[in-house]
Amino acid sequence: YAWDANEEYLFKAMVAFAMRRYSSKRTTQISNVLLCNVTDRVSFWFVVTDSSKNVTTVPGSEVEAAIRMNRNRINSAFLLSDKTLQFLKITSTLSPPVEPSTPVWLIVFGVVLCLIVAGIVFLVVGGIRQHKKKSKESTERESLEEKDEVTVTAENGIPCEVLDLKAGHVNGVFAADDERFTSL
């Protein structure tokens, strides 16, 4: 960061601006801000003198209050932040850390609860599918066993069951008519 006479002038102007905004009675000029012990690392101390009496200095508490009130403007003028532009004896005006609108523990609790509910749903759906698959397999076995007992033949492309000759087969449609007309 190049600190030269122009930067010093800007700093003096910003401090004079802060003093004027802090107390509207005073008319602090740039010439009332004195920089002392300026180093290459941009380290110095400054004094603000009273404009009516060029000899007396403004109390330090008033200067501190004026800088606190206008610190963001001073930082903006130098494109710096409270971390890079430090005033000794003046606490920084860093904004407080941002707190989320919902507590962190509530977010973690919600995620864990969702995982538990998803696991339970997965287990229930998996159990229902397994039960359906088992019942379908048992139904297929029973139908295959029934087909083994009664063989199916095809006549003229139409499946027909083979008659069980031992038990006999009676056609109910013709049974009533046969009894009326013919006796066996």
UniProtKB/TrEMBL annotation:
Membrane-topology annotation of the record: Single-pass type I membrane protein
Superkingdom as given in the UniProt entry: Eukaryota
This protein's record includes keyword Phosphoprotein: yes
Gene Ontology cellular-component annotations: extracellular exosome; plasma membrane
Main location (coarse class): membrane
Localization, UniProt: Cell membrane
GO BP annotations listed: positive regulation of amino acid transport
Keywords: Cell membrane, Glycoprotein, Membrane, Phosphoprotein, Signal, Transmembrane, Transmembrane helix
Database matches in InterPro entries: Collectrin, Collectrin_dom
Membrane-spanning parts: 104-128
Domain Collectrin-like: 1-184
PANTHER family: COLLECTRIN (PTHR46884:SF1)
UniProt-recorded name of the protein: TMM27 protein
Native organism: Hemiprocne comata
